Amino acid sequence: MADLRWGIIGPGRIAPRLVRALSQSRRGELVAVASRDADRATAFAAQHGIGRSYGSYDALLDDAEVDVVYVALPNHLHAKWTVKALHAGKHVLCEKPLATSVDAVDEIITTSERTGRTAVEGFMFLHHPQTILALELARSGALGRLELLSGTFSFFLTNPIDPRISPEMGGGSLWDVGCYPVSFSRRLAGEEPERLNAFARFDERGVDRTFIGQLLFAGGLLAQFDCGFAAPDRERMEIVGSDATLVLDAPFLPAPDGPPPSVTMWRGREATPIEVASVDQYHEEVEDLMSVILDGRAPRLDLASSRGNVATLVALDQAARDNVAMASAQDAS
Ligand SMILES: NC(=O)c1ccc[n+]([C@@H]2O[C@H](COP(=O)([O-])OP(=O)(O)OC[C@H]3O[C@@H](n4cnc5c(N)ncnc54)[C@H](OP(=O)(O)O)[C@@H]3O)[C@@H](O)[C@H]2O)c1
Question: In 3-state terms, what secondary structure has residue 82?
Answer without folding.
Answer: helix
